[in-house]
Amino acid sequence: MSAATSPYAAVLRTETRLFRREPGVLFWGLAFPSILLVILGSIPSFRNPEAGLGGLRTIDVYVPVLVLVSVITTSLQMLPPVLTGYRERGILRRMSTTPVRPAALLSAQMILAGGAALASVVLCLAIGRLGFGVKLPSQPLGYALTLVLTATAALSLGALITAVARTAKIASAIGTVAYFPALFTAGVWVPVQAMPNVMARIVTLTPFGAAAEALGEAARGDWPAWSHLGVLAAWAVVLSAAAMRWFRWE
C-alpha cells in the first residue's frame, strides 16, 4: 500500500483539515507569539542596548523567549484537550477495532502540534530579523538541537496531561494551570538573564528555563551549555516515560 493511501496518511489528512477549522488554535499557536513580538519590538526602550543584558537589546533577548512561547502554546493548549476529547467520546476505542490503530491519531496530533510550533518559530525569527534587526541564530546547529529537545519535552508534557485528565475540560484546565508557570520559567515576564542569581539557577533546572538559556547562547553564537542541554534531555526522557506509562486509549 502506498504512503498516499495508507491509513496513517488518511488520518493525518483528516486531522489537518480539522486543525485548519479551529481559528482559536491557529491564533494562539501561530499568531499570538508573533503579535506579542511586534508589540514588544514597538517599545522604543526595548530596542536600546542594555548593560545588564551584556549589551544586548531587550528585543534580542525576547525573540528566543517567544520562540519558546510558540512551542509551549501548541503543546499545552492545543494537544491535551483534543486528544482527551477523542478518548472521552470513544473515538480511540472505536479506532482500536479498525486497521487504523489509535497510535495513528496520536502520531498525527504530534506532527500537527510540532508543525504548528515550527511554523510559529520561523515566523518569530523572520519578524525579529526583518522588523527589528535581531540577528538570526549564530549557532544554528545548537539552536536546532535545543528546539528538538524542547519540543520533545513540551509535547511529552502535553501527552502526560492527556494521560491524567479524564475529560477535555479537565485537560484544558490542567493545561492552563501548567501554561503560566511554563511561560514564567521561559522568561516571558522577566528574561532568565535578568533574574536574580538564585532564581535564575532554580529556573534553569526547569525544561523551559534551561531552553531559554540554551537558545540565548546559540543565538549569540556559542554552543549551548551541556548543563542546559542535559536538563532538557532529562526532562524529555522523564516526561516521555511518564506519558507512555499512564496514557490510556479508553
UniProtKB/TrEMBL annotation:
Belongs to the ABC-2 integral membrane protein family. Keywords: Antibiotic resistance, Cell membrane, Membrane, Transmembrane, Transmembrane helix, Transport. Its main location: membrane. It comes from the Bacteria. Coiled coil: none annotated. The keyword Metal-binding does not apply. This is Transport permease protein. The chain crosses the membrane at residues 25-46, 61-83, 104-128, 140-163, 170-190, 225-247. It is found in: Cell membrane; Membrane. Residues 24-250 form the ABC transmembrane type-2 domain. It is a multi-pass membrane protein.
